[in-house]
Automatic annotation (TrEMBL):
<dbReference type="Pfam" id="PF01052">
    <property type="entry name" value="FliMN_C"/>
</dbReference>
<dbReference type="InterPro" id="IPR001689">
    <property type="entry name" value="Flag_FliM"/>
</dbReference>
<keyword id="KW-1003">Cell membrane</keyword>
<dbReference type="InterPro" id="IPR028976">
    <property type="entry name" value="CheC-like_sf"/>
</dbReference>
<dbReference type="InterPro" id="IPR001543">
    <property type="entry name" value="FliN-like_C"/>
</dbReference>
<keyword id="KW-0283">Flagellar rotation</keyword>
<keyword id="KW-0975">Bacterial flagellum</keyword>
<keyword id="KW-0282">Flagellum</keyword>
<feature type="domain" description="Flagellar motor switch protein FliN-like C-terminal">
    <location>
        <begin position="254"/>
        <end position="321"/>
    </location>
</feature>
<keyword id="KW-0145">Chemotaxis</keyword>
<comment type="similarity">
    <text>Belongs to the FliM family.</text>
</comment>
<keyword id="KW-0966">Cell projection</keyword>
<protein>
    <recommendedName>
        <fullName>Flagellar motor switch protein FliM</fullName>
    </recommendedName>
</protein>
<dbReference type="InterPro" id="IPR036429">
    <property type="entry name" value="SpoA-like_sf"/>
</dbReference>
<keyword id="KW-0472">Membrane</keyword>
<keyword id="KW-0969">Cilium</keyword>
<dbReference type="Pfam" id="PF02154">
    <property type="entry name" value="FliM"/>
</dbReference>
Length: 329
């Protein structure tokens, strides 16, 4: 960001130009020179600042969810936060990580390609020690994993992938399937060396040990969903979800509203004298035949026609058709 000049500096600059101490043409030439920037084609910038900010927000949520997941799984103090989000060539990323480390390669279906999560051994073996019942002592074990260690770490990292899916749910629903667990990055070739990748570094503290968890996302894998990483898309999606949630809440409330439903067998008119003389067994003749459909009223309004019957030894009415306005006429 350019420095902001104070009023005194502006006055001094105008005074120097007016007195000839400073040439305005030279200032213009210097300004034109500053517009030229060096561009390295080997280090291509493929992600916009807007997309980088969106990825940062997604993984800030991921780090919070992962803190809760690992705390419950390891039963010890865990603190994870986003340290940096950078885009760089894949070859440079591989060169920056230790020669022996924990590399979790997984496929984010339906996206085509693979993602990579690199866990520093200083952190990985603390988690392994806790899973085996230890105190979580920090030691850097540079060795090939045994079958038991591999199985335990795969189960732990699978829980991490489930949390990763949850963090990305706002952008795309993915099914992360673990492909391999490697220890040597030199034998791992996911994409071409010059392919641009985004590396999200998570600062991780487990018990008294600290280290980094690096998430490598190749541009070629994310390319089809990059439009969804813009702020405009996020705001529009949130508004649609908010409207949809309001509509569902209103629909659920309306569905729970009680209604009075009546099936009318017919009508009849009698005098008060006849009404007072009614006794059990008397028959009242209605204005409707037994083969005519019954009127079904909802909240006092005629809505349907039906026929009487029984269901599980209880009186019931079967709706046969809907009443239409003006049908009687």
């Amino acid at each position: 960001m350019a420095d902001v000049l104070s009023q005194n500096e502006i006055d001094a600059l105008l005074s120097a130009i007016s007195t000839g101490e400073m040439d305005a043409e030279e200032l213009r030439k210097e300004e034109e020179k500053q517009k030229i920037h060096t561009y390295d084609f080997k280090r291509a910038v493929r992600f916009s600042k807007d997309q980088i900010r969106s990825l940062s927000r997604i993984h800030e949520n991921f780090s919070r969810l992962l803190t809760t997941t690992f705390s419950a799984q390891l039963r010890t103090f865990v603190q994870i936060s986003v340290a940096s989000v950078d885009q760089l060539p894949y070859e440079e990323f591989i060169s920056s990580i230790p020669q022996m480390t924990l590399l979790n390669v997984f496929e984010p279906y339906p996206l085509e390609g693979r993602f990579l999560v690199e866990v520093n051994p200083n952190i990985g073996y603390v988690m392994l020690d806790r899973m085996l019942g230890g105190k979580g002592a920090s030691f850097n074990k540079i060795d090939t994993l045994t079958e038991i260690e591999t199985r335990i770490l795969k189960q732990l990292f699978q829980r991490m992938l489930e949390t990763f899916q949850e963090a990305w749910e706002s952008v795309i629903s993915i099914e992360a399937e673990m492909h391999a667990l490697e220890v040597n990055p030199q034998f791992l070739q996911m994409v071409s060396p010059n392919e641009t990748v985004v590396v999200i570094s998570l600062s991780t503290t487990i018990n008294e040990a600290s280290g980094m968890i690096n998430i490598c996302l190749p541009h070629v894998v994310l390319e089809e969903i990059l439009p969804k990483l813009s702020v405009h898309y996020w705001m529009q999606t949130k508004k649609q979800k908010r409207d949809s949630n309001h509509e569902k809440a209103l629909q659920a409330t309306v569905q729970k509203a009680p209604l009075t439903v009546q099936a009318l067998l017919g009508h009849s008119q009698i005098s008060i004298e006849d009404f007072l003389q009614l006794s059990p067994g008397d028959v009242i003749q209605l204005n409707q035949g037994i083969h005519e459909p019954l009127e079904i009223h909802v909240e006092g309004e005629k809505k349907y026609y039906g026929q009487p019957g029984k269901m599980k030894n209880k009186m019931a009415v079967q709706v046969t058709r809907e009443y239409e306005e003006g049908e009687e006429n």
